[in-house]
Design brief:
Helix content: 25-40%
Number of helices: 17
Number of strands: 20
Number of domains: 3
Length: about 550
């Protein structure tokens, strides 16, 4: 067994000494042999009264973990395949205290391990030669970042990068017409939205939010700043996701109706506000600065609202916007699907515990909570229609567009792909040399992806830290990764995951069920000593499982 207490180690040593003395030593050995039995960790909420979906997680033996849920969750398998639920050694969590070195040096079981993070420049990975799965062809992979799409493409054209993410819309034709390059289309459902925080004036007035929803020409934004294949959002969730587009379609552009509603709300001459964004290319927002300026111009022209555009550093913006701190303005943000279920879009953004948009609306999260335990799509559809209709009625945000996207690689790069969910795994890419360079659009915020939500961080982490299940290369179906199988009981409230035997962590320690429980407990249990991370938010644990356990009283 991998883990022994100091006392047990001393007892074992003592019994070995006694064994050399004859039968008396053998008797002592027999007495202490029971201590070698596996005593697995268990995270237990005690009851479901705390409001979350997870009742307990238990390591019943070294290679078996049992998840007991408070109610069925039809997206359980899809959720546990998501990078923030990756597994690290419980000893590493304890040694780092759940923060500090952990933010830049995750210890995982993946095909690559972090060798160096040169902040502001690059992350260098080295191949993990004891990897249980398909080894990478390159012994070294360098992850770099450039904000401008044109600069990323120039790196590819110069041969100093093998793969670049997020082509600018204007560069599609260049890649398509260059025989030395290949274009990789990305079929990830996503949404770009304008968010409000409803705890401060004027956004505490629903008519102001509705007026702004009426006063924006969505089609003009999509036509001018998005690539072919993009579309105006009719609902918050893309229609490719089952039940995503139940209920009424979003508001049509009507500046006159918007001005009238704004006047009724007490702002006949408009008002002055701010518009916050981060200047990072995203699939859902490929031209953030230009789109921000366009929205600024439209609000002034259509509604008389004077807008100051405020760019922010990526990490600062994510922290402030998702915490509901940008109360003096609107913010531009979006979402790319993490797993193929409507709960990923709706439950995360409109859940009872999400502070991003101010006070959450029971009219929205009520039907969502009920729908989240219903596996049958048709049965759940009326509840999602109700929730979508209330999003339109209450306007906590404005869905604008669903963006199309593409990436590019050298034509000589074998195995180049971009999955619909998650990021490409570097070990599947082969350029015929011992070194590979991947360039994305922004630097990771941290490599503690249990406590991050941005795609740039998740891409970096996915190479290192693995989950129980993984997504397919070309679909949202889940397949075994650290678990060889996860099987449910009849009502899908108990999931038994059988773990892969013989897996090693990058530090040479053995992977077992205790590591699974420790990693999940750190994220899900607010009282866990290692529930620290980068921001301490652990957003995906709180939102996707409805609540943290043991939240301190305010």
């Amino acid at each position: 067994m991998k883990k022994m207490s100091t006392l047990f180690a001393l007892l074992v040593a003592f019994s070995l000494v006694l064994a050399a003395c004859g039968s008396g030593g053998a008797a002592v050995q027999d007495e202490f042999s029971a201590l070698a039995e596996f005593e697995g960790l268990k995270l237990d909420a005690g009851s479901c009264d705390y409001g979350g979906k997870v009742l307990s997680i238990e390591a019943v033996d070294e290679l078996t973990v049992v998840f007991t849920l408070c109610k069925p969750d039809p997206a359980f398998e899809a959720k546990i395949a998501f990078t923030p639920f990756g597994i690290q050694p419980q000893e590493h969590l304890a040694r780092t205290g759940g923060t500090g070195e952990l933010l830049e040096n995750p210890i995982g079981t993946g095909p690559y391990q972090v060798a160096e993070w040169d902040r502001g420049n690059q992350i260098v990975y080295t191949r993990f030669d004891d990897y249980w799965g398909e080894a990478g062809s390159a012994s070294t992979v360098t992850l770099r970042w450039l904000t401008e799409g044109a600069a990323r493409l120039q790196e590819l054209q110069a041969g100093t990068a093998d793969y670049v993410s997020n082509l600018s819309p204007s560069d599609y034709a260049t890649v398509q017409n260059d025989p030395n390059l290949q274009i990789l289309y990305h079929q990830n459902p996503n949404v770009f939205y304008i968010g409000f925080t409803n705890t401060a004036s004027p956004y505490d007035n629903v008519d102001v939010r509705r007026a702004i929803a009426l006063g924006i020409d969505y089609q003009r934004i999509v036509d001018n700043f998005y690539p072919d294949g993009s579309e105006v959002a009719s609902h918050f969730t893309p229609c490719a996701i089952p039940n995503g587009c139940e209920g009424e379609s979003w508001y049509e552009f009507d500046a006159e109706a918007g001005r009238a509603l704004l006047a009724e709300a007490g702002y006949p001459d408009g008002f002055t506000t701010r518009l916050y964004y981060r200047d990072v290319f995203r699939v859902y927002l490929p031209e953030p600065a230009r789109v921000a300026t366009e929205i600024q111009a439209q609000l002034q022209e259509n509604l008389g609202i004077t807008v100051e555009v405020v760019p922010m550093e990526s990490g600062e913006f994510i922290a402030a916007s998702t915490s509901g701190e940008l109360t003096d303005g609107m913010h531009l943000l979006g979402w790319g699907a993490d797993y193929p279920h409507v709960t990923n879009f709706m439950d995360f953004h409109f859940g009872a515990n999400n502070p991003q948009f101010g006070n959450a609306h029971a009219e929205i999260y009520g039907p969502l909570q009920e729908a989240s335990s219903i596996a049958d799509v048709a049965t759940a559809a009326p509840l999602y229609a109700e929730a979508n209709n209330m999003v339109k009625e209450l306007v906590p945000l404005i869905p604008v567009a669903h963006g199309a996207a593409a990436h590019a690689a050298l034509a000589s790069l074998q195995g180049a792909y971009y999955p619909p969910f998650g990021a490409p795994q570097f070990n599947y890419l082969n350029n015929g040399t011992d070194s590979l360079v991947f360039v994305q659009n922004a630097e990771p915020i941290s490599l503690d992806c249990a406590d991050e939500t941005d795609g740039e961080s998740l891409t970096a982490c996915q190479q290192v830290v693995e989950t129980l299940l993984e997504y397919g290369k070309d679909s949202g179906a889940t397949f075994p990764e650290l678990a060889t199988a996860c099987v449910s009981n009849a009502d899908s409230t108990v999931w038994t995951c059988t773990l892969r035997d013989g897996v090693k962590f990058h530090d040479g320690s053995d992977f077992d069920a205790d590591d699974v429980v420790a990693s999940w407990a750190r994220g899900l249990d607010a009282s866990n000593p290692y529930h620290v991370g980068n921001t301490g938010s652990f957003d995906y644990y709180g939102y996707l499982w409805d609540s943290f356990m043991n939240v301190p009283a305010e």
